[in-house]
Amino acid sequence: MRVKDVKKVVLAYSGGLDTSVILKWLQTTYNCEVVTFTADLGQGEELGPARKKAELLGIRPENIFIDDLREEFVRDFVFPMFRANALYEGMYLLGTSIARPLIAKRQIEIAEQVGADAVCHGATGKGNDQVRFEIGYYALKPDVKVIAPWREWDLTSRTKLIEFAEQHQIPISKDKRGEAPFSVDANLLHSSSEGKVLEEPWDEPPEVVWQRTIRPEDAPDTPTEIVIEFERGDAVGINGERLSPAELLTRLNALGKENGIGRLDLVENRFVGMKSRGCYETPGGTILYVAHRAMESITLDREAAHLKDSLMPRYAELVYNGFWFSPERRMLQALVDESQHSVSGEVRLKLYKGNTIVTGRRSPNSLYSMKHVTFEEDQGAYDQTDAQGFIKLNALRLRLGAMAGRKGGTL
Amino acid sequence: MRVKDVKKVVLAYSGGLDTSVILKWLQTTYNCEVVTFTADLGQGEELGPARKKAELLGIRPENIFIDDLREEFVRDFVFPMFRANALYEGMYLLGTSIARPLIAKRQIEIAEQVGADAVCHGATGKGNDQVRFEIGYYALKPDVKVIAPWREWDLTSRTKLIEFAEQHQIPISKDKRGEAPFSVDANLLHSSSEGKVLEEPWDEPPEVVWQRTIRPEDAPDTPTEIVIEFERGDAVGINGERLSPAELLTRLNALGKENGIGRLDLVENRFVGMKSRGCYETPGGTILYVAHRAMESITLDREAAHLKDSLMPRYAELVYNGFWFSPERRMLQALVDESQHSVSGEVRLKLYKGNTIVTGRRSPNSLYSMKHVTFEEDQGAYDQTDAQGFIKLNALRLRLGAMAGRKGGTL
Amino acid sequence: MRVKDVKKVVLAYSGGLDTSVILKWLQTTYNCEVVTFTADLGQGEELGPARKKAELLGIRPENIFIDDLREEFVRDFVFPMFRANALYEGMYLLGTSIARPLIAKRQIEIAEQVGADAVCHGATGKGNDQVRFEIGYYALKPDVKVIAPWREWDLTSRTKLIEFAEQHQIPISKDKRGEAPFSVDANLLHSSSEGKVLEEPWDEPPEVVWQRTIRPEDAPDTPTEIVIEFERGDAVGINGERLSPAELLTRLNALGKENGIGRLDLVENRFVGMKSRGCYETPGGTILYVAHRAMESITLDREAAHLKDSLMPRYAELVYNGFWFSPERRMLQALVDESQHSVSGEVRLKLYKGNTIVTGRRSPNSLYSMKHVTFEEDQGAYDQTDAQGFIKLNALRLRLGAMAGRKGGTL
Amino acid sequence: MRVKDVKKVVLAYSGGLDTSVILKWLQTTYNCEVVTFTADLGQGEELGPARKKAELLGIRPENIFIDDLREEFVRDFVFPMFRANALYEGMYLLGTSIARPLIAKRQIEIAEQVGADAVCHGATGKGNDQVRFEIGYYALKPDVKVIAPWREWDLTSRTKLIEFAEQHQIPISKDKRGEAPFSVDANLLHSSSEGKVLEEPWDEPPEVVWQRTIRPEDAPDTPTEIVIEFERGDAVGINGERLSPAELLTRLNALGKENGIGRLDLVENRFVGMKSRGCYETPGGTILYVAHRAMESITLDREAAHLKDSLMPRYAELVYNGFWFSPERRMLQALVDESQHSVSGEVRLKLYKGNTIVTGRRSPNSLYSMKHVTFEEDQGAYDQTDAQGFIKLNALRLRLGAMAGRKGGTL
């Protein structure tokens, strides 16, 4: 089922062993020109070595693309998603899912630029990432040829991979010789770990899995208090300092890390049909999620908020399944964005040993009316007798039902 | 807008000052026989004094009803709701909302038994509880007369209330003379505080508000590990000990309390149209929520789980708004319950300073298949080439869209 | 519960007997200045007499407002709603509901212009229209005073109304002396009839009820064929002739009328809690609904269409309940409108004795790909082997369930 | 991607040319024992010839299964679906979709009975039916081997198919030599036609396509009036005569046919990602749909009805996509069925030249209260002043929004 006649392929290239093997395998299998694309999404690795390694493997300089996409990532992908309060299966902040469409988009842009007819990624045939990459590719360039080596080749074991690397003079760093005890993905929003030692869902993950946050037990005994400022649904500052999207998330990551915030050990349902177990660390994102909900709590109309909440699972599912570049995600985004015009103001939080605790929220657009809610005399702001008619008409259909013998809402 | 010709009324009676004043006011205003009903829902107060006080206020012994409803409360109200993972506005575990229908139901049962034509509650005209009580009443006895003193009388200040009490020889305990700094509701699931000192949403709640949990900072430095056992969606045991519903929730409350778990400071949207700020403590319920989701994570089919998630906001809204006894809640419950047949097994948790951390889950009905998900050789359990067709057909409509010029899912 | 100190009130005035009585009653009861507002929404009545009658009843010329709102009505209210394919309870095209917000909006605009502090409408206390008017008023001018005579006065029978009219020299046309056999509302989108002879839902409506369409039996024996042209979700022309929104709907109404199209006899659920029976005629709207769906069928992406469909009941409920001017309706509209960019092209229809039959649709933006769907040789456009992987991964979770003993999707 | 080592296969066998070729192809390609299964689902064909032809092609008598499934089809598949008022994409009554799971179920039962390890169907690789069959197979027997000849073989043109048939002495009826002008599927619920002459969506379908209904133009000039009786959501009788499910649908089909009812010409979205055009005839189903909605209109609570309506698109999508045997369809069915307890009574209809017109509905469980809705004096059944409080509290959040500067529901 391999594609044919590939002339030039853009490879999502990390510089690591696996994608280096893929690079070589592409050259030898498809006999085509390879263009590498390496993105800084905040995964915390130097990109310099990726360039060197690509050159070493024979890629011509004009075919090596290295981009810092951190601001675009947070501004155009992470923030819109957080406006929706997206949680997959009630828990997961979608850290891996949200990065894939951006990589796909940039790969296709490069393909158009260099006249490539194919793109290639290093995701396996069992996971969600292959879907996310490829749906992105197809949605942006419907005639593109897609190469997914892990679904095609016969390098199905670590041993064979290492052998192939040795045969083709691919440098192998010492620590990559053995099998990693689990598989990792990271970007500015989160780190995920899965596989191998994590495959038994009854076993607690070993501490070594957590690389992005300290243990709550090891976090400071004193809470850290911060204030996050929002404008139209997006965080724009911390403690009075205005920050760009990526700066802000970086800052929140540091705060979350120190306070042991954002760990999640989850069994989730993959789009390809099986359950898997992942360990996620989303330190800054966890803080941002809590803060955004608190900001909305005083600035969003009730029905606006409930409508958003009712559609959130669908939005999260779309992102998880890889349909960022789809009409339905755009439609939901239009609905969500329409709701965020007044979501501005400040939220105060206490960060403490894994906890993100809201301690205050205020806004020039607040819909909270102390005059109406007060237990004190309200000067006629609210007429309590209105409640009687409200209740009676809300109950009317139930009373008519009960009169017809259907007591207590039976049918 | 007062009801007329009330002969006998069943009053939801706590024994406190407010409902004692109501009791007297009913007698003097409606000149009717008063029946008191006091329920133990786990609010943590002795019920003996309520009986004595009712007698003191002239209620005949056969008109005093005192019931321990704790098991019924947890079994028939709390547990069904937790099967749905209900969270109002993404955060609130509905501790007050879920108790009201049970009180309403029992009041109506007593009314039928003693031949009363009216019922009365002590909720104010600004809140949700009046709606929850009265919708319950009407759904169960459509011709019942409803008396809501706070919407009717002119005892609109603390001073007038105290005056009325003094005039009518209602005993006033010392600490009730002054105004409480906030208003409290409690039952086995949670305690809530609102009003007065809590009315400014930018101010952090004073520590005195939290009565049901210790501060996370004061919780033990060592995590507590527990295992919760589930059968068909309901928790049935802790650490190998089988417990009744109320026993189990009581035990979880103790565990949560000690570990500083379950505090929530929230601005929420009331059904009557305004925003309010509440401070909630749901120690056991918070643990139960996390555990139930973890149990479902390995036992529920993906689409079953997603369907539940998509309807959860609606279910929570119904409970919050007081529509427990409604056809639509029953329909959603039927859907939810249908999903829980296999939600059995064990979840292991670590409780630590406000955190409820899942560390393991297992089930005889597990749908997690290590054979399929493994990074190791899977013996053909999963054919990676299937993913290609899966992706291509999922992408087909997007490719057709892009070919028609709508790149990236534009419309 | 009457509002106090009304200085100037804007009355939605039809010129008929009922609103003339209201006009006089306002003057005598509130002793306030009355401003009349009469709108042409295509109800098919002359507006001249309304002006004369208002003058006769002592309204000063500068206080008489008469507006032709037909184009605004169709362009800004009917068309946006039809983009959503809104049907209340699966059947009703919302002809009355959609007109109310526009009347409310214009009344408030006039109130602002003339410095009125109150508005008044002639809807009864049992129906939906009072809700629709008043929610509109409050959403646009939160401090407005609302007068709803039918909920306030004691003119509770036809006899008393006539008496009041006679006392106050209000002219009564002969045919208004007796009780109308049913109540009618009409505008450019539809006519509705309800009450009196229609109150028994087992009885077929008498033919006299239908005023806007001929009987299907009386319609021509030969079908009428038309082509409707759409641009971005809105109809813009018929049979090649470009028409303004109101012109177009007028034309469709004539076509529908002649062909007996658009009658509906429905028992529906009112927002105020009871069921009612209505007989609706929406000749042009029925044609437009069918045509718009057909246009979408070739221009909308599948998931875009399904997302719209899943939210349509909510959208229709909002319009029916009177929440046109609400954040949630705006959010849903944003989602709907986002989907309509490519809904352009032509639909051919056959109109015949009550039937609206689609016979063709075409579009420059069509997503229908004959190349892909054809039963003939498709030149490799579609690879049938892709279906295998697609099915296998879609079935994987069900297979895993069945392996765990849950055959056939049991839980 | 062919399955291996097939020993015994159960083939869904119609007796027609295509499945006869498949039968032979299975024997020659897989060298396995073939078991034929032919079902009477009301498609209107004699089954005797299928048995003879199977014997002629060498199938042993004990390997020939012929079942009359009409009652099971209507009772356990069609009726549950109609309880949900399922319409795919707002229009399509799912006549083909609903038959596939029953065929799959029976095939698997036979496979278990005869010890077959494989099943085979004659659906193409472009359509929905392959998905519906195979998801059914896998959900009921997760280890079954599935053979889909049209995705595997090289008989990709009519000519090759005929050649193969001639080579293998498969009798070919004269009219099958040429290409059919379109492809047909039929059962007791509907007939569908697609492909070939129907592939251009701008062209009106030729009259020859419609085989199951007469033209509205040719239907009687006088309406036919009928009364359908319902019990708990299912139709149980017509005009006072109690009928079994299949008898009843057969009767309605005859009535629909004569009156030109149930034609639909639709462009729809397939699960496999493309749009296709189908012409459907569902005479009895169309009448049943209208009647069921009318029955619900007086017996279902408003929110029960709206909840059902909001989930209907999802239910219909599940049936269309082939997920009848899934947890999520069962969950939705539980919700739907819970709502139908009181959906009993009678609906009167007029059938006339393509129209199904409701003229009356009545029920012992009716929730329609003339006392409440009447325009006449209602004896205090409904207190109009209740409406004021109802409206004011429903409007409160919008007023608070407008006071905060967000007029008219802006955000």
Automatic annotation (TrEMBL), chains A, B, C, D:
Q: What is its main location?
A: cytoplasm
Gene Ontology biological-process entries: argininosuccinate metabolic process; L-arginine biosynthetic process; urea cycle
Q: Where is the Arginosuccinate synthase-like N-terminal domain?
A: 8-171
Q: What is its EC number?
A: 6.3.4.5
Q: Which InterPro entries match?
A: Arginosuc_syn_C, Arginosuc_syn_N, Arginosuc_synth, Arginosuc_synth_CS, Arginosuc_synth_type_1_subfam, AS_cat/multimer_dom_body, Rossmann-like_a/b/a_fold
Which is a Pfam family this sequence falls into? Arginosuc_synth
Q: Which residues bind ATP?
A: 12-20, 39, 122
Q: Where in the cell is it found?
A: Cytoplasm
* Location of the Arginosuccinate synthase C-terminal domain: 182-399
* One Gene Ontology term, aspect cellular component: cytoplasm
Q: Where are the transmembrane segments?
A: none
The UniProt record gives the binding positions of L-citrulline as 92, 97, 128, 132, 183, 192, 268, 280
Whether Transferase counts among this entry's keywords is no
Q: tRNA-binding: is it a keyword of this entry?
A: no
Which GO MF term does the entry hold, naming one?
A: argininosuccinate synthase activity
Task: Give me the residues that bind L-aspartate, please.
Answer: 124, 128-129
The record's catalysed reaction(s) read: L-citrulline + L-aspartate + ATP = 2-(N(omega)-L-arginino)succinate + AMP + diphosphate + H(+)
The pathway that the record names for this protein is: Amino-acid biosynthesis; L-arginine biosynthesis; L-arginine from L-ornithine and carbamoyl phosphate: step 2/3
Entry keyword set: Amino-acid biosynthesis, Arginine biosynthesis, ATP-binding, Cytoplasm, Ligase, Nucleotide-binding
Quaternary structure, from the entry: Homotetramer.
Q: Which family does it belong to?
A: Belongs to the argininosuccinate synthase family. Type 1 subfamily.
UniProt name for this protein: Argininosuccinate synthase
The species this protein was found in: Roseomonas acroporae
Could you read off the lineage of the organism from its UniProt record?
Answer: Bacteria, Pseudomonadati, Pseudomonadota, Alphaproteobacteria, Acetobacterales
